[in-house]
Amino acid sequence: MLTLHVAEATPETAVLVDGASLAALGPYEELAAVEPRARVRRWPGILTPGLLNPYGPEILEHTYHPDPREAAEFGTQPITGERARALFRADPSRLGASARRGVQRLLAHGTVAVAGELRGRAALDAVRRAGLVLAARPAALRGPVSFSPVPLVLLPGLRVGGPARFAVFDVPDRAELVRRGASTCVATVIGGRLVHRRA
């Protein structure tokens, strides 16, 4: 099924998705005229190629992401440092579930690729299942580990025939995305699938 994605602030860069690939790129009006039967998904903000998060191991292997059912015991925020290591030592089975929840948090921040050497099977499996791309880590990392790293790293531009992998942020332009960060993500698409949609 063909799906046409368009963001309010960037109608000139709508994307037509066919399965896992980008069938066409261009102004919304033109694509809608060519494929009038395509399902249309309208988003606020801007449509971008999506983000690379350079902190894959730190977020997925060195951080414990509590299950919402553990909120009374652990809270809802990621746990790092010795406390996270102690949780993983006490129960190694926590690694897989934590990595899956970490991936969901990354997707909610427009992340479509992660960098850094993942060593554990749990994190690698979570990344592969989600369809995240594994990439090389940038040479210099300036900011602290974050779901919205500084600077934000946008992937190269989208291309026809390429993978349907992009994100939408509820901001008027890229300058505002840089200022406000990746928490403005409203949708993430990987392999043509909507893997995150802000409620």
Description:
With 199 residues, the chain is an alpha/beta fold. It has two domains: 2-50 and 156-197, Urease, subunit C, domain 1 (Roll); 52-135, no CATH class. The protein has seven helices and twelve strands. It has helices spanning 28-34, 56-60, 71-74, 81-90, 94-107, 121-130, 174-180, and strands spanning 2-7, 14-18, 21-26, 39-43, 46-48, 51-53, 111-115, 133-135, 153-154, 166-169, 185-190, 193-197. The strands form three sheets. Strands 3-2-1-4 form a four-stranded mixed sheet, with helices on one face. It has a four-stranded antiparallel sheet with strand order 5-10-11-12, with no helix packed on it. The longest helix has 14 residues, at 94-107. The mean pLDDT is 95.
Structural class: alpha/beta
As a percent range, the share of strand residues is 25-35%
User: Which assembly state applies to the chains in this document?
Assistant: single chain
Count of the domains: 2
